[in-house]
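Example record

One chain of 158 residues, shown exactly as stored in the release files.
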Amino acid sequence: MLEIERKFLVKTKAFKSEAFSQSEIKQGYLNSSPERAVRIRIKKKIGYLTIKGKSDESGTTRFEWEKEIDKEEAEALLKLCEPGVISKIRYEVEAGEHVYEVDEFFDENDGLVLAEIELNTSDEKFIKPDWLGEEVTGDVRYYNSQLSKNPFTLWKEN
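Predicted C-alpha cells for this chain:
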C-alpha cells in the first residue's frame, strides 16, 4: 500500500498524440491535511475513496489506500468535500515499461499540466519523454489536495 511516484511539469502538448487513454476526472477532499488526505473521485463513471498518508522527506513515497465505490455515493460525498473540487482530464502515455499519467487541469487550476510516473523503487530508472519539464516531486504546491485549497491560477508565475 505504498505509492512511489515522481511528478513533473509538462512543457508541451505533444503527449496528447502519444496517449492511449484519456478520461475526465472530478475530485474533492473530505480532508486535505498533509498528514492524511481523504479524496473522493469520479473517473469513467466509477467512484473512488482514497486515503493518502504523509510523504517521506523526498516526496516520492507515501501510504495510499483506495476503494471503488458507487458513482452515486461518490457524487453525494463530493457535496461534503472541502471547497475547491478539481476538474481535469487524465491522459495515459506509455514510455518504455512505464505509464505516465498526465493531468490537464481546468477551472481554478487552468493552465497547469502535470505528469506522474509510478515506480517500484525510489531509484528506479525510467524514460523521460521530450515533453517532460521540471521535476516538482515533493513540492506540496503541486499536490492535488493543495491545489484544491490554493489553486494554480493564484500563484503561477506569469
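Notes: Residues 4-154 form a domain with the Hypothetical Protein Pfu-838710-001 fold (CATH 2.40.320.10).
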